[in-house]
Amino acid sequence: MAKSEKKLKVLFVSSEVTPFSKTGGMADVAGSLPVALRKAGVDIRVATPRYRSVDIFGSEARLKGGVPVYFIENDGYFMRDNLYGDERGDYADNLDRFAFFSRRVLELLKEIDFKPDIIHCNDWQTGLVPVYLKEIFRADPFYAGIKTVMTIHNIAYQGLFPKGEFHKTGLPWDYFTMHRLEFYDMVNILKGGLIFADTITTVSPTYAKEIQTPEFGYGLNGLLSERKGSLFGILNGIDYNEWDPAKDKELKYHFSALKPDGKYKDKSALQKKAGLEEKPDTPLIGIISRLADQKGLDLVSQIIRSLLGMDVQFILLGTGEKRYHNLFEGIKRRFPGKASINLRFDALLAKEIYAGADIFLMPSRYEPCGLGQIISLRYGTIPVVRNTGGLADTITEYDPKTTRGTGFVFERYDAGELFNAVRRAADVYRQRGLWKKLVANAMRCDFSWDSSAKKYADLYKKIT
Ligand code: ADP
């Protein structure tokens, strides 16, 4: 950036930010994209709620590289064990909580005297920010000219509330129309964000196209295709320092594309820890996932018994829907030494699986971007994925003839197709030379934040 050029100022707003709070991939994005943008010369700051899990002193902290993080406080709303709900379901006051958060974020700017060029919002929890900016704050010259970006991380979660809760937004009733926040007689907060934001992004180019169709758009496809000129797909990255098989502190043995041998020691360490037989030549298949339909676990449940009839091992790490917990408990009893089932959230075990497994399954029904397959590539663990969303944009089918490609990809959402893709992987696995080449291809991919952060920075410049 030329010295004379003014630094772009951005406020990044997210309801979860790693390492302070996390339920999914969006937290990782919020904890790493701003770091990369700051490196790219953007004056960026982050705002997020102060949940109980936020373990800091005072109401401000910093991400790596010095990005300031402001915590919005309200003990009644945020000092809880979970972010959005518990085993009984979503918290009943979620609309109050995130309406409060969105309004406070805008007030905060004036209090800290930070006037951003852009406010970058993420998912429905921040959907009221662009609406409030236009309806409530525009009269104040401090807020004049601020532009908004709304990023969709998963369009299935829209912040839908009964009409009877509309008053909680504090907006006049003329906002409750189908051209604004109304959606089949309910309040749709994400919809408001998408209509009032200047620019919309989502987390992969393929998902940007998919959400304009009825199959993937969850009722917002019409609105998104109308706005397609302002809709961009930018792939998420991962922090390559945090995820680095050559120097991860959590790993016993290190490895890289040039020196891959440590991976096989990590594999036997994992087998030992997970109660699997220590078989170096049996392909170890891993899954790390929320146990939800989106992730294709119904396909996995249809093939898991036949799969474990072959010479493979299976390790699962995840929590979620009860029926999947029951299913995998059954698998654990039926296949001791062959299947390791871990129904919990465990960051250390996740890293050990990324490093020690041979194959990573991600047969998602839909996948906005997906981080699991990107982390797997980094650790030379070969993804088997369905050709959808960010999976389609990151993984290409391995061709043993040309030795090009990074994984195994199937088209239709179908258990037989998944089974065949795993079998293709297992076949190549047994041809050591071909497999080594495949692992090297995977580890040579670059899905670090650098190139995607540049795309966001370019987009910010274009908008202002
Ligand atoms: P989503 O955000 O839809 O859940 P992503 O693939 O984008 O899916 O991100 C999920 C992230 O959460 C990945 O970093 C994955 O490793 C991590 N993860 C998911 N489940 C667990 C778990 N049970 N324990 C540890 N990490 C998990």
Overall description:
It is a single chain. The protein is globular and about 70 Å long. The protein has about 475 residues and is an alpha/beta fold. The protein has an 8-stranded mixed β-sheet, sandwiched between helices. A 6-stranded parallel β-sheet has the order 16-15-14-17-18-19, sandwiched between helices. Strands 9-11-10 form a 3-stranded antiparallel β-sheet. About 40% of the residues lie in helices and about 15% in strands. It has 17 helices and 19 strands. The model has no long low-confidence stretch (mean pLDDT about 95). It folds into 2 domains: about 10-235 and about 450-464, 3-Layer(aba) Sandwich (Rossmann fold), CATH 3.40.50; about 260-445, 3-Layer(aba) Sandwich (Rossmann fold), CATH 3.40.50.2000. Adenosine-5'-diphosphate (ADP) binds next to helix 1 and helix 12.
TL;DR of this structure?
The protein folds into two domains: 9-237 and 449-463, Glycogen Phosphorylase B (Rossmann fold, 3-Layer(aba) Sandwich), CATH 3.40.50; 261-443, Glycogen Phosphorylase B (Rossmann fold). It contains 17 helices and 19 strands.
Entry keywords:
single chain, 464 residues, alpha/beta, Rossmann fold, 2 domains, eight-stranded mixed beta sheet, 19 strands, binds adenosine-5'-diphosphate
